[in-house]
Amino acid sequence: MADTATLPNKPKTIVCDGNEAAAWGVVLSRPDVVAVYPITPQSSLVEYVSQFIADGTLDAELLNLDGEHSVLSALQGAALAGARTYTATCGPGLAFMFEPYVRTPGLRLPMVASLVTRDMLTPQCVWGGQQDAMTVRECGWIHMYCETVQEVLDTTIMGYRIAEHRDVMLPVNVNHDGNYLSYGVARAELPGQAEVDAFLGEKNVNWHAALDPLRPMAIDPLTGGSGGPGPSMFVRYRKGLCNGMQNALRVIEEAHADWARLTGRHHAPLVEEYRLDDAEVALVTIGSMTGAAKDAVDALRSGGKRVGLIKVKTMRPFPVEAMARALSKVSAIAVVDRAVSYGWNTGPVYQEVLGALYRARHMIPAISVIGGLAGADITDGHFARCIEMAFKAAATGQAPDGPVWINEND
Amino acid sequence: MKPAPEAIPNDLCPVATQLTTLMPGDWRALKPVVDRAKCVKCAVCWLYCPVQCITEKPAWFDIDLRICKGCGICARECPHRAISMVEESDG
Hints:
The complex is a heterodimer. By secondary structure, chain A is α/β, with parallel strands linked by helices. Chain A is built from 13 helices and 16 strands. In chain A, the strands form 3 sheets. Chain A has a 7-stranded mixed sheet with strand order 3-2-4-5-7-6-13, with helices on both faces. In chain A, strand 2 (33-36), helix 2 (43-55) and strand 3 (61-64) form a beta-alpha-beta unit. The radius of gyration of chain A is 21 Å and the shape is globular. By secondary structure, chain B is of the alpha+beta class. Chain B is built from 2 helices and 5 strands; from the N terminus they run E-E-H-E-E-H-E. In chain B, the strands form 2 sheets. A two-stranded antiparallel sheet of chain B has the order 2-5. A two-stranded antiparallel ribbon of chain B has the order 3-4. In chain B, 16% of the residues are buried. Chain A binds chain B through residues 106-109, 169, 202, 204, 207-210, 215-221, 223, 236-237, 239-240, 243, and chain B through 1-3, 5, 8-17, 19.
């Protein structure tokens, strides 16, 4: 546990795990209301936040509620009343949160919620995996995946800037891998409070639906049906949400650029291209696995192999143009997923990448690799084998039929 | 700093500022009709009506059709078969 006796008014360096980094990001973002229900591997995150509130480091209302459904429902009310809000969950907790979860984007409530990603039941497991977050990728929340402890801290703060932008007004999930990032300890730089205050600007989260005694209103009335103004009105709100998502692509880039100016820390906002410019093949990765994947790329580069890497930071909205640009540089890819698309018998990121390849009119062999399920490690050795498969696919023009399960024979 | 209501885009959070009342009687399919000759004011319909829309008249019980949703429980329970359910017509 870090020293919580003083507010981090000045920038300073700490050593912490990803859950504590997220909690510091929350402290610096100054939410008014935090509602929580603990669940592995998120538990220590909300314990850190609770401790910060108990110590007076963070001046916020803390709601310990009876379950995740209540947690997010309470935050909806708080946001409509004008509060900046925060929660965190994962796995079965996220499943229990699902009903208010799907309602939040349509209400256009700019919350930030960490998903400390955990593999989904069943078999019963409590370890990392991205099946929970990938399962809810089509609900209208912005999804950003972090690679490092520092990126967790920085993205939590940037999340509020993105969510509350008037062209976006959408909830943001800041996702970090259970176990590998939640408990992995690293050095992290804490920005100063004044810098973060200036970066986030004036808080105003309910300007679009503020309750006003002079203007009585009902929030979320029955809308739609087959007659009268219903159908066109429903389409208007759906399109509004889609437009907010598309606007988020620009706002995410702007937020990352401003953050880099403020702190000197550059995180790729949408997709990161790593040693890609003269690459023949590339790995596509998401989340904390990227560190080991970059090590594998570096090792093979030392041996003269022309290999690069494309990392997905923003999964929702999907940055199809940025991904298409990156993919156009290579002639074969291996997409490594930490989740399964049961419907496609591939990983979910793989299907998104295929869509981007079509957009780029770039028909290259693409391998679906699935690994790191339920806490399994994806090592640099695994990634070296993936790269080898990609080179073979580039040479033959053929990708394996069906996914490669990299922990199958560990 | 809140923008004026007319300056808020109309494709964000769904908000209703015009409230209209929809009474149960506005969407009823069958309406109860009391045969005053058969009604003995036993009040069984009054006891059973789930929306409490039975009203007392000098010599019979009648139905408040603004509130009645047409469920037909009164007609089913009336021991004198004094209530019949009649299909609503438009208008």
